[in-house]
Amino acid sequence: MIKSYVWIVGVIGLIVVAVGYSLWTRTADSEYLSKTKHDSDRWAVIRDSNGDIIAVESTDDETWNTLQDLRQNQTEMWIGGIIESYDNKWNFRFRPDTIIVARFTVEGGQSNIQGISTDLDYWINIWTKETYVLATVIEIHDTH
After folding, report:
1. Cystine design at 105: which of 3, 10, 101, 132 (Cβ 3.0–4.6 Å)?
2. Alpha carbon distances (Å) from 97 to 34, 83, 104, 137
3. Positive or negative, the Cα torsion across 83, 133, 37, 64?
4. What is the rounded distance in angstroms from the CA atom of residue 116 to the CA atom of residue 135?
5. Host H or E run for residue 54
């Protein structure tokens, strides 16, 4: 009888662990997808100096090649563009036709993903110029 009880408790414990793990991975996947939402078949994921990630899409071939080189070399650079509202976790993206990769930037245009997200009104309506985050390209996706 005690053996059966221990066995049942063990099985229930395994089920709880399996369901918990499944829910945890689903939540993690959902958050990743929200942070890296994109519209094109050609996009990169960048990680800023705080460890936050966002998708970057570029319509310019030269900029795209630079992003690919940064991924390969793991070089940290200022990556940015003009901020626009967007339906992702951060509520913004860098407008694809304005993506810039730079070694140096205007100091007033430097931020991080979280900083931009928490003060979107400033970056979209007051600053209105290119905004940059110090970042590393961690993924490249190109289904062309």
Report:
1. 132
2. 21, 11, 20, 18
3. positive
4. 14
5. strand 53-56
Mean pLDDT on 73-87:
97
DSSP assignment letter at 143: -
What local confidence, expressed as pLDDT, does residue 16 receive?
A: 55
CB 13 within 8 A of CB 103: no
DSSP letters for 13-24 = HHHHHHHHHHHH
Helical (H) or strand (E) element with 138: strand 130-142
Whether the Cβ atoms of residue 44 and residue 137 lie closer than 8 Å to each other? yes
Would you say 116 and 131 are in contact if contact means Cβ atoms under 8 Å apart? yes
Cβ–Cβ contacts within 10 Å for residue 44, how many? 26
pLDDT tens per residue across span 6-22: 667 666 666 655 454 44
Identity (one letter) of the amino acid at 108?
G
Tokens (6 digits) for 60:
């310019």
